[in-house]
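Hi L.,

You mentioned the student needs an example of a multi-chain input paired with its predicted structure. This one should do, with 618 residues in total across all chains.
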Amino acid sequence: MLSMDRDARAAIREFVLDRLAPTSGRADIGDEDDLIDSGVIDSLGIFQLVAFLEERFGIAIGDEEITPENFGSVMAIERLVAARSR
Amino acid sequence: MAYLLQQLLTESVHRHPDKPAVRARGRSLTYGELDLRSSQLARLLRDRGIERGDRVGLFFPKAVESVVAMLGVLKAGAVYVPLDPHAPARRVAAIAEDCGVRAVVTTAERLATLPPLELACVLLVSGEPRGAGGVTQIPQIPQIPQIPWSALETFPAAAPPESAIESDLAYILYTSGSTGQPKGVMLTHRNALTFVDWCAATFRVGPDDRLSNHAPLHFDLSVFDVYNTLAAGATVSLIHEEITVFPQRLAALMEDHGITVWYSVPSALVYLLLHGDLAARDLDRLRLILFAGEVFPMKYLRQLADLLPRAELYNLYGPTETNVCTYHRVDRWKLAGQNRLPIGRACANTEVVALDADGRPVPAGGTGELFVRGPSVTPGYWGDPEKSGRALVDDPRPPRRGDRLYRTGDLVTPDEHGEYLFLGRRDSQVKSRGYRIELGDVEAALYAHPAVAEAAVVAVPDDDVGSRLRAFVALRAGETVTAGALQAHCAGRVPRYMVPERIEVRTELPRTSTGKTDRTRLAADARLMEAA
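Structure written out for the whole complex:
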Protein backbone atom coordinates (compact mmCIF):
# COMPACT_ATOMS: atom_id res chain seq x y z
CA MET A 1 0.00 0.00 0.00
CA LEU A 2 2.80 2.36 0.91
CA SER A 3 4.45 2.04 -2.48
CA MET A 4 1.14 2.68 -4.22
CA ASP A 5 0.76 5.85 -2.19
CA ARG A 6 4.19 6.94 -3.25
CA ASP A 7 3.33 6.35 -6.90
CA ALA A 8 0.09 8.22 -6.53
CA ARG A 9 1.78 11.16 -4.93
CA ALA A 10 4.45 11.23 -7.63
CA ALA A 11 1.83 11.23 -10.37
CA ILE A 12 -0.16 14.00 -8.70
CA ARG A 13 2.96 16.05 -8.06
CA GLU A 14 4.03 15.61 -11.64
CA PHE A 15 0.72 16.86 -13.01
CA VAL A 16 0.62 19.80 -10.63
CA LEU A 17 4.23 20.74 -11.33
CA ASP A 18 4.27 20.14 -15.08
CA ARG A 19 0.79 21.15 -16.11
CA LEU A 20 -0.53 23.62 -13.55
CA ALA A 21 2.43 25.27 -11.88
CA PRO A 22 4.01 26.62 -15.09
CA THR A 23 1.00 28.79 -15.90
CA SER A 24 0.99 30.20 -12.38
CA GLY A 25 4.67 31.06 -12.35
CA ARG A 26 5.43 28.94 -9.26
CA ALA A 27 8.34 26.55 -9.56
CA ASP A 28 8.89 24.79 -6.25
CA ILE A 29 5.85 23.33 -4.57
CA GLY A 30 6.03 21.18 -1.48
CA ASP A 31 3.50 18.48 -0.68
CA GLU A 32 1.79 20.66 1.91
CA ASP A 33 2.10 23.99 0.14
CA ASP A 34 -1.09 25.83 -0.60
CA LEU A 35 -2.26 25.47 -4.20
CA ILE A 36 -5.29 27.76 -4.10
CA ASP A 37 -4.24 31.16 -2.70
CA SER A 38 -1.06 30.84 -4.73
CA GLY A 39 -3.07 30.53 -7.92
CA VAL A 40 -1.55 27.17 -8.94
CA ILE A 41 -5.10 25.82 -9.17
CA ASP A 42 -7.56 28.25 -10.70
CA SER A 43 -11.04 27.75 -12.09
CA LEU A 44 -9.69 26.33 -15.31
CA GLY A 45 -6.91 24.26 -13.79
CA ILE A 46 -9.16 22.52 -11.30
CA PHE A 47 -11.10 20.72 -14.00
CA GLN A 48 -7.97 19.76 -15.88
CA LEU A 49 -6.79 18.26 -12.61
CA VAL A 50 -10.07 16.47 -11.91
CA ALA A 51 -10.09 15.00 -15.41
CA PHE A 52 -6.52 13.81 -14.93
CA LEU A 53 -7.24 12.19 -11.56
CA GLU A 54 -10.35 10.46 -12.85
CA GLU A 55 -8.47 8.99 -15.76
CA ARG A 56 -5.23 8.13 -14.00
CA PHE A 57 -6.80 6.53 -10.95
CA GLY A 58 -10.05 5.30 -12.45
CA ILE A 59 -12.17 7.14 -9.93
CA ALA A 60 -15.13 9.50 -10.20
CA ILE A 61 -14.96 12.85 -8.46
CA GLY A 62 -18.27 14.61 -7.94
CA ASP A 63 -18.71 18.36 -8.18
CA GLU A 64 -19.51 18.38 -4.45
CA GLU A 65 -16.05 17.01 -3.74
CA ILE A 66 -14.35 19.91 -5.48
CA THR A 67 -13.58 21.87 -2.33
CA PRO A 68 -10.59 23.69 -0.85
CA GLU A 69 -10.28 20.87 1.71
CA ASN A 70 -9.76 18.28 -1.04
CA PHE A 71 -7.62 20.36 -3.38
CA GLY A 72 -5.70 22.72 -1.11
CA SER A 73 -2.37 20.87 -1.39
CA VAL A 74 -0.75 17.86 -3.04
CA MET A 75 -1.25 16.00 0.25
CA ALA A 76 -4.95 16.83 0.31
CA ILE A 77 -5.41 15.63 -3.25
CA GLU A 78 -3.58 12.45 -2.43
CA ARG A 79 -5.87 11.85 0.56
CA LEU A 80 -8.89 12.33 -1.67
CA VAL A 81 -7.56 9.88 -4.25
CA ALA A 82 -6.65 7.33 -1.56
CA ALA A 83 -10.11 7.57 0.00
CA ARG A 84 -11.80 7.10 -3.36
CA SER A 85 -9.55 4.24 -4.51
CA ARG A 86 -10.28 2.12 -1.46
CA MET B 1 -26.36 65.42 -7.23
CA ALA B 2 -23.09 63.55 -6.95
CA TYR B 3 -20.38 64.69 -9.34
CA LEU B 4 -17.61 62.68 -7.65
CA LEU B 5 -17.78 58.93 -7.04
CA GLN B 6 -17.17 59.18 -3.29
CA GLN B 7 -20.20 61.43 -2.95
CA LEU B 8 -22.38 58.38 -3.68
CA LEU B 9 -21.58 57.37 -0.12
CA THR B 10 -22.89 60.55 1.54
CA GLU B 11 -26.59 59.85 1.51
CA SER B 12 -26.23 56.16 2.31
CA VAL B 13 -24.10 56.93 5.37
CA HIS B 14 -26.64 59.48 6.52
CA ARG B 15 -29.58 57.10 6.09
CA HIS B 16 -28.18 53.93 7.58
CA PRO B 17 -24.77 54.29 9.18
CA ASP B 18 -25.04 50.90 10.90
CA LYS B 19 -25.97 48.86 7.85
CA PRO B 20 -23.31 46.62 6.32
CA ALA B 21 -21.93 48.10 3.12
CA VAL B 22 -19.26 45.53 2.30
CA ARG B 23 -18.78 41.88 3.14
CA ALA B 24 -15.67 39.84 2.37
CA ARG B 25 -13.91 36.82 3.82
CA GLY B 26 -16.30 36.54 6.74
CA ARG B 27 -15.93 40.19 7.75
CA SER B 28 -18.13 43.18 7.12
CA LEU B 29 -17.98 46.96 7.35
CA THR B 30 -20.91 49.27 8.00
CA TYR B 31 -21.52 52.44 6.04
CA GLY B 32 -20.37 54.43 9.05
CA GLU B 33 -17.11 52.51 9.33
CA LEU B 34 -16.49 52.66 5.59
CA ASP B 35 -16.98 56.42 5.60
CA LEU B 36 -14.81 56.96 8.67
CA ARG B 37 -11.91 54.74 7.61
CA SER B 38 -11.83 56.05 4.06
CA SER B 39 -11.77 59.64 5.34
CA GLN B 40 -8.90 58.76 7.66
CA LEU B 41 -7.10 57.06 4.80
CA ALA B 42 -7.49 60.22 2.72
CA ARG B 43 -6.05 62.22 5.61
CA LEU B 44 -3.12 59.85 5.89
CA LEU B 45 -2.37 60.11 2.17
CA ARG B 46 -2.53 63.90 2.26
CA ASP B 47 -0.37 63.90 5.36
CA ARG B 48 2.24 61.91 3.46
CA GLY B 49 2.28 64.33 0.60
CA ILE B 50 -0.12 62.65 -1.81
CA GLU B 51 -1.72 65.34 -3.90
CA ARG B 52 -4.63 65.69 -6.24
CA GLY B 53 -4.13 63.52 -9.32
CA ASP B 54 -1.39 61.33 -7.78
CA ARG B 55 -1.72 57.61 -8.48
CA VAL B 56 -2.10 55.15 -5.65
CA GLY B 57 -1.72 51.41 -6.30
CA LEU B 58 -4.06 48.95 -4.60
CA PHE B 59 -2.27 45.63 -4.48
CA PHE B 60 -3.87 43.00 -2.26
CA PRO B 61 -6.44 40.22 -2.53
CA LYS B 62 -10.06 41.28 -2.10
CA ALA B 63 -10.98 42.28 1.44
CA VAL B 64 -13.31 44.83 3.06
CA GLU B 65 -10.27 47.13 3.03
CA SER B 66 -10.43 47.16 -0.78
CA VAL B 67 -13.44 49.46 -0.79
CA VAL B 68 -12.02 51.60 2.04
CA ALA B 69 -8.88 52.07 -0.03
CA MET B 70 -10.76 52.94 -3.23
CA LEU B 71 -12.84 55.58 -1.47
CA GLY B 72 -9.94 56.85 0.63
CA VAL B 73 -7.85 57.50 -2.45
CA LEU B 74 -10.75 59.33 -4.11
CA LYS B 75 -11.40 61.41 -0.99
CA ALA B 76 -7.76 62.48 -1.14
CA GLY B 77 -8.42 63.71 -4.69
CA ALA B 78 -6.05 61.04 -5.98
CA VAL B 79 -6.43 58.25 -8.54
CA TYR B 80 -6.48 54.57 -7.66
CA VAL B 81 -4.88 51.87 -9.77
CA PRO B 82 -6.04 48.34 -8.90
CA LEU B 83 -3.12 45.94 -9.42
CA ASP B 84 -3.91 42.29 -10.09
CA PRO B 85 -2.74 40.39 -6.97
CA HIS B 86 -2.30 37.26 -9.10
CA ALA B 87 -0.34 38.82 -11.95
CA PRO B 88 3.39 38.14 -12.25
CA ALA B 89 5.60 40.59 -10.37
CA ARG B 90 7.17 41.82 -13.60
CA ARG B 91 3.78 42.78 -15.02
CA VAL B 92 2.68 44.52 -11.84
CA ALA B 93 5.98 46.37 -11.74
CA ALA B 94 5.58 47.51 -15.35
CA ILE B 95 2.15 48.94 -14.53
CA ALA B 96 3.22 50.61 -11.29
CA GLU B 97 6.13 52.22 -13.11
CA ASP B 98 4.09 53.17 -16.16
CA CYS B 99 1.64 55.28 -14.19
CA GLY B 100 4.16 56.34 -11.56
CA VAL B 101 2.33 55.27 -8.42
CA ARG B 102 3.29 57.47 -5.47
CA ALA B 103 1.80 55.28 -2.75
CA VAL B 104 0.73 51.67 -2.44
CA VAL B 105 -1.82 49.94 -0.26
CA THR B 106 -0.66 46.34 0.00
CA THR B 107 0.28 43.46 2.28
CA ALA B 108 3.78 42.72 3.51
CA GLU B 109 3.84 39.59 1.31
CA ARG B 110 2.99 41.51 -1.85
CA LEU B 111 5.25 44.44 -1.01
CA ALA B 112 8.21 42.07 -1.14
CA THR B 113 7.43 41.33 -4.80
CA LEU B 114 7.42 44.97 -5.91
CA PRO B 115 10.46 46.60 -7.48
CA PRO B 116 11.98 49.69 -5.90
CA LEU B 117 9.52 52.50 -6.56
CA GLU B 118 9.69 56.14 -5.55
CA LEU B 119 6.93 56.04 -3.01
CA ALA B 120 5.76 58.58 -0.50
CA CYS B 121 4.34 55.83 1.68
CA VAL B 122 3.14 52.25 1.90
CA LEU B 123 -0.01 51.39 3.82
CA LEU B 124 0.03 47.79 4.96
CA VAL B 125 -3.17 45.80 5.08
CA SER B 126 -2.82 43.02 7.63
CA GLY B 127 -1.44 39.70 6.43
CA GLU B 128 -2.99 37.30 4.03
CA PRO B 129 -4.62 34.15 5.36
CA ARG B 130 -1.72 31.97 4.30
CA GLY B 131 1.60 33.11 2.92
CA ALA B 132 0.13 33.36 -0.55
CA GLY B 133 3.15 34.98 -2.13
CA GLY B 134 5.37 32.31 -0.65
CA VAL B 135 7.13 35.06 1.32
CA THR B 136 6.59 35.54 5.01
CA GLN B 137 9.39 37.91 5.83
CA ILE B 138 8.44 41.55 6.04
CA PRO B 139 10.69 43.51 3.74
CA GLN B 140 12.60 46.43 5.16
CA ILE B 141 12.77 49.34 2.80
CA PRO B 142 14.31 51.99 5.00
CA GLN B 143 13.51 55.06 2.90
CA ILE B 144 9.81 54.40 2.58
CA PRO B 145 7.56 54.80 5.60
CA GLN B 146 5.43 51.69 6.12
CA ILE B 147 2.25 52.40 7.97
CA PRO B 148 0.12 49.67 9.50
CA TRP B 149 -3.62 49.72 8.81
CA SER B 150 -4.29 50.15 12.52
CA ALA B 151 -2.65 53.59 12.38
CA LEU B 152 -5.66 54.92 10.45
CA GLU B 153 -7.44 55.40 13.80
CA THR B 154 -5.04 58.17 14.70
CA PHE B 155 -6.07 60.36 11.78
CA PRO B 156 -8.89 62.92 11.81
CA ALA B 157 -12.36 61.56 11.06
CA ALA B 158 -13.26 64.26 8.54
CA ALA B 159 -12.12 63.89 4.96
CA PRO B 160 -9.96 66.64 3.51
CA PRO B 161 -11.96 69.34 1.70
CA GLU B 162 -13.09 68.30 -1.78
CA SER B 163 -11.02 69.84 -4.54
CA ALA B 164 -11.53 67.47 -7.46
CA ILE B 165 -13.92 68.10 -10.33
CA GLU B 166 -15.86 65.55 -12.32
CA SER B 167 -13.43 65.46 -15.24
CA ASP B 168 -10.55 64.51 -12.94
CA LEU B 169 -9.38 60.90 -13.05
CA ALA B 170 -10.85 58.49 -10.51
CA TYR B 171 -9.06 55.28 -11.46
CA ILE B 172 -6.90 53.68 -14.14
CA LEU B 173 -7.58 50.13 -15.34
CA TYR B 174 -4.83 48.34 -17.21
CA THR B 175 -5.65 46.01 -20.08
CA SER B 176 -3.65 43.88 -22.48
CA GLY B 177 -1.70 45.85 -25.09
CA SER B 178 -0.84 44.48 -28.53
CA THR B 179 2.91 45.09 -28.19
CA GLY B 180 3.40 43.47 -24.80
CA GLN B 181 3.09 46.65 -22.73
CA PRO B 182 -0.22 46.86 -20.81
CA LYS B 183 -2.15 50.05 -21.47
CA GLY B 184 -3.77 52.14 -18.77
CA VAL B 185 -7.34 53.17 -19.52
CA MET B 186 -7.99 56.44 -17.68
CA LEU B 187 -11.47 56.86 -16.26
CA THR B 188 -12.86 60.06 -14.79
CA HIS B 189 -15.48 60.51 -12.10
CA ARG B 190 -17.90 61.58 -14.82
CA ASN B 191 -17.13 58.48 -16.91
CA ALA B 192 -18.03 56.20 -14.02
CA LEU B 193 -21.00 58.23 -12.80
CA THR B 194 -22.57 58.23 -16.26
CA PHE B 195 -22.61 54.44 -16.06
CA VAL B 196 -23.77 54.30 -12.43
CA ASP B 197 -26.59 56.78 -13.09
CA TRP B 198 -27.80 54.69 -16.03
CA CYS B 199 -27.68 51.55 -13.87
CA ALA B 200 -29.66 53.22 -11.09
CA ALA B 201 -32.43 54.18 -13.51
CA THR B 202 -32.44 50.85 -15.35
CA PHE B 203 -31.94 48.26 -12.63
CA ARG B 204 -33.45 50.11 -9.65
CA VAL B 205 -30.90 48.84 -7.18
CA GLY B 206 -32.32 49.55 -3.71
CA PRO B 207 -31.24 49.39 -0.06
CA ASP B 208 -32.55 45.81 0.25
CA ASP B 209 -30.43 44.57 -2.61
CA ARG B 210 -27.40 42.43 -2.03
CA LEU B 211 -24.91 42.61 -4.83
CA SER B 212 -22.13 40.19 -5.54
CA ASN B 213 -18.74 41.16 -6.79
CA HIS B 214 -17.33 38.28 -8.76
CA ALA B 215 -14.97 40.15 -11.09
CA PRO B 216 -11.49 41.10 -9.93
CA LEU B 217 -11.21 44.74 -8.88
CA HIS B 218 -8.88 45.57 -11.77
CA PHE B 219 -11.69 44.50 -14.12
CA ASP B 220 -14.32 47.13 -14.92
CA LEU B 221 -17.29 44.89 -14.07
CA SER B 222 -16.44 45.61 -10.43
CA VAL B 223 -17.31 49.29 -10.93
CA PHE B 224 -20.95 48.25 -11.21
CA ASP B 225 -20.86 46.13 -8.07
CA VAL B 226 -19.15 48.62 -5.79
CA TYR B 227 -20.62 51.97 -6.81
CA ASN B 228 -24.19 50.85 -7.41
CA THR B 229 -24.12 49.35 -3.94
CA LEU B 230 -22.92 52.59 -2.38
CA ALA B 231 -25.39 54.71 -4.33
CA ALA B 232 -28.32 52.55 -3.24
CA GLY B 233 -27.25 51.93 0.34
CA ALA B 234 -27.20 48.21 -0.47
CA THR B 235 -24.64 45.56 0.54
CA VAL B 236 -21.94 44.11 -1.67
CA SER B 237 -20.26 40.74 -1.11
CA LEU B 238 -16.76 40.74 -2.49
CA ILE B 239 -16.13 37.18 -3.61
CA HIS B 240 -12.49 36.50 -3.01
CA GLU B 241 -10.44 34.90 -5.72
CA GLU B 242 -10.14 31.46 -4.09
CA ILE B 243 -13.90 30.91 -3.80
CA THR B 244 -14.28 31.35 -7.55
CA VAL B 245 -12.26 28.14 -8.03
CA PHE B 246 -14.89 26.05 -6.22
CA PRO B 247 -18.24 26.21 -7.96
CA GLN B 248 -20.31 24.72 -5.16
CA ARG B 249 -18.77 27.11 -2.63
CA LEU B 250 -19.63 29.91 -4.97
CA ALA B 251 -23.21 28.69 -5.28
CA ALA B 252 -23.43 28.35 -1.49
CA LEU B 253 -22.21 31.90 -1.08
CA MET B 254 -24.93 33.15 -3.44
CA GLU B 255 -27.54 31.49 -1.26
CA ASP B 256 -26.01 32.31 2.13
CA HIS B 257 -25.47 35.96 1.31
CA GLY B 258 -28.92 36.22 -0.24
CA ILE B 259 -27.51 37.71 -3.43
CA THR B 260 -30.18 39.61 -5.38
CA VAL B 261 -28.02 41.09 -8.13
CA TRP B 262 -25.28 39.15 -9.88
CA TYR B 263 -22.92 40.55 -12.49
CA SER B 264 -20.13 38.52 -14.08
CA VAL B 265 -18.66 37.27 -17.30
CA PRO B 266 -20.73 34.52 -18.97
CA SER B 267 -18.00 31.92 -18.37
CA ALA B 268 -18.42 32.33 -14.60
CA LEU B 269 -22.13 31.64 -14.98
CA VAL B 270 -21.46 28.66 -17.27
CA TYR B 271 -19.06 27.34 -14.64
CA LEU B 272 -21.75 27.63 -11.95
CA LEU B 273 -24.30 26.07 -14.23
CA LEU B 274 -22.16 23.06 -15.10
CA HIS B 275 -20.57 22.39 -11.71
CA GLY B 276 -22.28 24.49 -9.05
CA ASP B 277 -25.43 22.36 -8.56
CA LEU B 278 -27.51 25.52 -8.68
CA ALA B 279 -30.73 23.52 -8.68
CA ALA B 280 -30.03 22.46 -5.08
CA ARG B 281 -29.80 26.08 -3.95
CA ASP B 282 -32.50 28.46 -2.90
CA LEU B 283 -31.79 31.36 -5.25
CA ASP B 284 -35.28 32.83 -5.29
CA ARG B 285 -33.98 36.19 -4.16
CA LEU B 286 -31.77 36.48 -7.22
CA ARG B 287 -33.78 39.01 -9.22
CA LEU B 288 -31.22 40.28 -11.67
CA ILE B 289 -28.42 38.60 -13.59
CA LEU B 290 -26.18 40.77 -15.70
CA PHE B 291 -23.39 39.50 -17.87
CA ALA B 292 -20.78 41.12 -20.08
CA GLY B 293 -17.32 40.68 -21.48
CA GLU B 294 -17.86 37.90 -23.99
CA VAL B 295 -20.52 36.08 -25.98
CA PHE B 296 -22.82 33.87 -23.88
CA PRO B 297 -23.25 30.49 -25.64
CA MET B 298 -27.00 30.21 -26.31
CA LYS B 299 -27.38 26.62 -25.12
CA TYR B 300 -26.07 27.57 -21.69
CA LEU B 301 -28.04 30.78 -21.54
CA ARG B 302 -31.25 28.81 -22.18
CA GLN B 303 -30.34 26.38 -19.39
CA LEU B 304 -29.63 29.22 -17.01
CA ALA B 305 -32.89 30.95 -17.88
CA ASP B 306 -34.80 27.71 -17.24
CA LEU B 307 -33.05 27.13 -13.95
CA LEU B 308 -33.73 30.64 -12.64
CA PRO B 309 -37.20 31.47 -13.93
CA ARG B 310 -37.66 34.54 -11.71
CA ALA B 311 -34.45 36.37 -12.59
CA GLU B 312 -34.28 39.05 -15.23
CA LEU B 313 -31.29 38.59 -17.52
CA TYR B 314 -29.38 41.32 -19.32
CA ASN B 315 -26.57 41.17 -21.82
CA LEU B 316 -24.34 44.22 -21.32
CA TYR B 317 -21.69 45.29 -23.77
CA GLY B 318 -18.83 47.75 -23.66
CA PRO B 319 -15.03 47.86 -23.55
CA THR B 320 -13.21 49.23 -20.50
CA GLU B 321 -12.76 52.49 -22.44
CA THR B 322 -16.50 53.21 -22.33
CA ASN B 323 -17.75 50.87 -19.64
CA VAL B 324 -21.15 49.50 -20.61
CA CYS B 325 -22.46 51.33 -23.67
CA THR B 326 -25.20 49.00 -24.97
CA TYR B 327 -27.59 46.58 -23.29
CA HIS B 328 -30.13 43.98 -24.22
CA ARG B 329 -32.80 42.57 -21.96
CA VAL B 330 -33.11 38.84 -22.56
CA ASP B 331 -36.60 37.94 -23.74
CA ARG B 332 -37.29 34.47 -22.34
CA TRP B 333 -40.01 33.84 -24.88
CA LYS B 334 -37.65 34.45 -27.76
CA LEU B 335 -34.66 32.53 -26.41
CA ALA B 336 -35.63 29.17 -27.90
CA GLY B 337 -35.59 30.57 -31.45
CA GLN B 338 -32.59 32.87 -31.09
CA ASN B 339 -29.23 31.73 -32.34
CA ARG B 340 -27.43 34.92 -31.32
CA LEU B 341 -28.07 37.35 -28.52
CA PRO B 342 -27.97 41.03 -29.52
CA ILE B 343 -25.68 43.38 -27.61
CA GLY B 344 -28.68 45.66 -27.88
CA ARG B 345 -29.11 49.41 -27.92
CA ALA B 346 -27.31 52.37 -26.40
CA CYS B 347 -27.50 53.17 -22.69
CA ALA B 348 -28.83 56.56 -21.59
CA ASN B 349 -26.58 59.53 -22.33
CA THR B 350 -24.55 57.41 -24.76
CA GLU B 351 -24.59 57.22 -28.53
CA VAL B 352 -23.36 54.21 -30.47
CA VAL B 353 -23.09 54.00 -34.23
CA ALA B 354 -21.75 51.48 -36.72
CA LEU B 355 -19.62 53.20 -39.36
CA ASP B 356 -18.24 51.82 -42.60
CA ALA B 357 -14.64 52.30 -43.76
CA ASP B 358 -15.56 55.74 -45.13
CA GLY B 359 -17.06 56.89 -41.86
CA ARG B 360 -20.67 56.58 -42.98
CA PRO B 361 -23.34 55.02 -40.77
CA VAL B 362 -24.18 51.49 -41.83
CA PRO B 363 -27.83 50.66 -42.66
CA ALA B 364 -29.72 47.78 -41.00
CA GLY B 365 -28.18 44.48 -42.02
CA GLY B 366 -24.84 46.03 -43.03
CA THR B 367 -21.51 45.50 -41.30
CA GLY B 368 -19.54 48.28 -39.65
CA GLU B 369 -17.26 49.07 -36.77
CA LEU B 370 -18.94 50.23 -33.58
CA PHE B 371 -18.10 53.74 -32.39
CA VAL B 372 -19.17 55.26 -29.06
CA ARG B 373 -19.79 58.87 -28.11
CA GLY B 374 -20.71 60.34 -24.76
CA PRO B 375 -19.62 61.19 -21.22
CA SER B 376 -18.74 57.56 -20.40
CA VAL B 377 -15.89 57.52 -22.92
CA THR B 378 -12.32 57.51 -21.55
CA PRO B 379 -10.12 60.58 -22.10
CA GLY B 380 -7.43 58.12 -23.32
CA TYR B 381 -4.54 55.91 -22.25
CA TRP B 382 -2.18 56.95 -19.51
CA GLY B 383 0.98 58.51 -20.89
CA ASP B 384 0.26 57.41 -24.44
CA PRO B 385 -1.13 60.22 -26.59
CA GLU B 386 -0.38 58.25 -29.74
CA LYS B 387 -2.47 55.25 -28.79
CA SER B 388 -5.15 57.59 -27.44
CA GLY B 389 -5.21 59.41 -30.76
CA ARG B 390 -5.76 56.19 -32.66
CA ALA B 391 -8.59 55.06 -30.40
CA LEU B 392 -10.34 58.42 -30.01
CA VAL B 393 -11.14 59.93 -33.37
CA ASP B 394 -13.01 62.95 -34.68
CA ASP B 395 -16.63 62.22 -35.44
CA PRO B 396 -16.62 62.04 -39.26
CA ARG B 397 -20.35 62.73 -39.53
CA PRO B 398 -21.68 66.21 -40.22
CA PRO B 399 -21.73 68.83 -38.80
CA ARG B 400 -18.23 67.84 -37.65
CA ARG B 401 -18.10 69.77 -34.42
CA GLY B 402 -14.89 68.06 -33.33
CA ASP B 403 -16.70 65.52 -31.13
CA ARG B 404 -14.67 62.50 -30.14
CA LEU B 405 -15.72 58.96 -30.92
CA TYR B 406 -14.17 55.88 -29.35
CA ARG B 407 -13.53 53.21 -31.93
CA THR B 408 -14.14 49.82 -30.34
CA GLY B 409 -12.54 47.59 -32.98
CA ASP B 410 -15.71 45.48 -32.75
CA LEU B 411 -17.58 44.65 -35.94
CA VAL B 412 -21.33 44.81 -35.58
CA THR B 413 -24.50 44.85 -37.59
CA PRO B 414 -27.56 46.89 -36.70
CA ASP B 415 -30.83 44.94 -37.01
CA GLU B 416 -34.16 46.37 -38.16
CA HIS B 417 -35.16 47.22 -34.57
CA GLY B 418 -32.07 49.34 -33.96
CA GLU B 419 -30.39 46.67 -31.86
CA TYR B 420 -26.83 45.73 -32.58
CA LEU B 421 -25.41 42.26 -33.11
CA PHE B 422 -21.76 41.55 -32.38
CA LEU B 423 -19.92 39.86 -35.27
CA GLY B 424 -16.25 39.80 -34.27
CA ARG B 425 -13.06 41.82 -34.07
CA ARG B 426 -11.26 43.71 -36.79
CA ASP B 427 -7.92 42.99 -35.08
CA SER B 428 -6.33 40.13 -33.14
CA GLN B 429 -7.92 40.83 -29.77
CA VAL B 430 -9.66 37.81 -28.25
CA LYS B 431 -11.63 37.06 -25.09
CA SER B 432 -10.98 34.20 -22.73
CA ARG B 433 -13.08 33.92 -19.60
CA GLY B 434 -14.15 37.48 -20.32
CA TYR B 435 -10.58 38.76 -20.20
CA ARG B 436 -9.47 40.83 -23.09
CA ILE B 437 -6.29 39.50 -24.61
CA GLU B 438 -4.18 40.92 -27.42
CA LEU B 439 -2.55 37.94 -29.13
CA GLY B 440 0.45 40.19 -29.79
CA ASP B 441 0.86 40.65 -26.03
CA VAL B 442 1.24 36.88 -25.59
CA GLU B 443 3.55 36.63 -28.60
CA ALA B 444 5.74 39.38 -27.17
CA ALA B 445 6.12 37.30 -24.00
CA LEU B 446 7.17 34.28 -26.06
CA TYR B 447 9.60 36.31 -28.15
CA ALA B 448 11.26 37.50 -24.95
CA HIS B 449 12.59 33.95 -24.51
CA PRO B 450 16.11 33.79 -25.99
CA ALA B 451 15.53 30.42 -27.69
CA VAL B 452 12.43 31.53 -29.57
CA ALA B 453 12.89 32.46 -33.21
CA GLU B 454 9.25 32.70 -34.17
CA ALA B 455 5.99 32.58 -32.27
CA ALA B 456 2.32 32.67 -33.21
CA VAL B 457 -0.59 32.50 -30.82
CA VAL B 458 -4.08 31.53 -31.94
CA ALA B 459 -7.36 31.38 -30.09
CA VAL B 460 -9.52 28.28 -30.37
CA PRO B 461 -13.22 29.00 -29.78
CA ASP B 462 -14.58 27.23 -26.70
CA ASP B 463 -18.11 27.20 -25.29
CA ASP B 464 -17.07 27.08 -21.66
CA VAL B 465 -14.49 29.86 -21.52
CA GLY B 466 -14.90 31.81 -24.79
CA SER B 467 -11.58 30.79 -26.27
CA ARG B 468 -8.43 28.92 -25.37
CA LEU B 469 -4.96 30.05 -26.35
CA ARG B 470 -2.63 27.80 -28.33
CA ALA B 471 0.88 28.76 -29.29
CA PHE B 472 3.19 27.58 -32.02
CA VAL B 473 6.86 28.25 -31.64
CA ALA B 474 9.92 27.75 -33.83
CA LEU B 475 13.26 27.74 -32.02
CA ARG B 476 16.57 29.24 -33.01
CA ALA B 477 19.06 26.79 -34.53
CA GLY B 478 20.65 24.55 -31.92
CA GLU B 479 18.22 25.55 -29.14
CA THR B 480 16.04 23.12 -27.22
CA VAL B 481 13.32 24.10 -24.81
CA THR B 482 10.19 22.30 -23.65
CA ALA B 483 6.64 23.54 -23.91
CA GLY B 484 6.45 23.53 -20.10
CA ALA B 485 9.49 25.74 -19.81
CA LEU B 486 7.99 28.18 -22.30
CA GLN B 487 4.75 28.23 -20.32
CA ALA B 488 6.69 28.93 -17.15
CA HIS B 489 8.53 31.70 -18.97
CA CYS B 490 5.23 33.28 -20.09
CA ALA B 491 3.81 32.92 -16.59
CA GLY B 492 6.57 35.21 -15.38
CA ARG B 493 5.47 37.92 -17.80
CA VAL B 494 1.74 37.85 -18.41
CA PRO B 495 -1.28 37.07 -16.22
CA ARG B 496 -2.29 33.43 -16.06
CA TYR B 497 -5.29 33.77 -18.35
CA MET B 498 -2.87 34.87 -21.06
CA VAL B 499 -0.51 31.89 -20.78
CA PRO B 500 -1.18 29.48 -23.69
CA GLU B 501 -2.61 26.23 -22.37
CA ARG B 502 -0.74 24.33 -25.04
CA ILE B 503 2.46 25.22 -26.83
CA GLU B 504 3.69 23.24 -29.80
CA VAL B 505 7.36 23.50 -30.71
CA ARG B 506 8.01 23.10 -34.43
CA THR B 507 11.02 23.37 -36.66
CA GLU B 508 9.32 26.14 -38.63
CA LEU B 509 5.95 27.86 -38.84
CA PRO B 510 3.84 27.63 -42.01
CA ARG B 511 3.85 30.68 -44.31
CA THR B 512 1.35 32.22 -46.65
CA SER B 513 2.23 32.94 -50.29
CA THR B 514 3.22 36.47 -49.23
CA GLY B 515 5.64 35.13 -46.64
CA LYS B 516 3.60 35.94 -43.52
CA THR B 517 2.96 33.43 -40.78
CA ASP B 518 -0.07 31.43 -41.89
CA ARG B 519 -2.38 32.00 -38.92
CA THR B 520 -5.39 30.49 -40.63
CA ARG B 521 -3.50 27.26 -41.08
CA LEU B 522 -2.27 27.34 -37.48
CA ALA B 523 -5.78 27.99 -36.19
CA ALA B 524 -6.96 24.93 -38.12
CA ASP B 525 -4.06 22.89 -36.70
CA ALA B 526 -4.95 24.04 -33.21
CA ARG B 527 -8.55 22.91 -33.67
CA LEU B 528 -7.28 19.52 -34.78
CA MET B 529 -5.11 19.35 -31.66
CA GLU B 530 -8.30 19.89 -29.63
CA ALA B 531 -10.15 17.13 -31.39
CA ALA B 532 -7.27 14.69 -30.93
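You could point out the following to them. The CA atoms of residues 248 and 276 of chain B lie 4 Å apart. The interface with chain A takes residues 61, 86, 88, 128-134, 241-242, 244-249, 268, 271, 275-277, 433, 465, 484-485, 487-488, 490-492, 496, 499, 501 of chain B (CB under 8 Å).

Best wishes,
N.
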